[in-house]
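[09:14] KT: can someone run the structure on this one? pasting the chain below
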Amino acid sequence: MREPIKEQIKTLAELDRVIHEPARLMLVAILSEVEEVDFLYLLRETGMSKGNLSSHLARLEAALYVEVTKTYRGKIQMTLCRLTDRGRAAFEQYRTMLKASLEAVGAAPSRKEGLGMQPNPAFSFEPRAVRL
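[09:31] RB: done, structure tokens below
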């Protein structure tokens, strides 16, 4: 016998809220694919404003998921961002939990099937020709 749907998707409430926010999820997904990138690259790829991007990076940095380093290339200051080992592990766990939750919902019977209901032919819809 299957678990009730409520039990199957409870893991959705346990997802990492730091990563789950869409803008931060986008940042972590990008950073998971590279060694490190500069701030301007993230700015272009995400389409965020400088302030918004800075704010989300600061939140990820506070959670120890991202390391932000200020450096120079010649006389030009660069801000480099990279995902920490803790951030990579958190993202992998997030992906695993989300996938399991979504698969559980997909494997669950539909609401009608779960209640043992059958379609009522009296309420079936048959299209009729419409005169204009």
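[09:33] KT: thanks! The mean pLDDT is 83.
[09:34] RB: yep, looked fine to me
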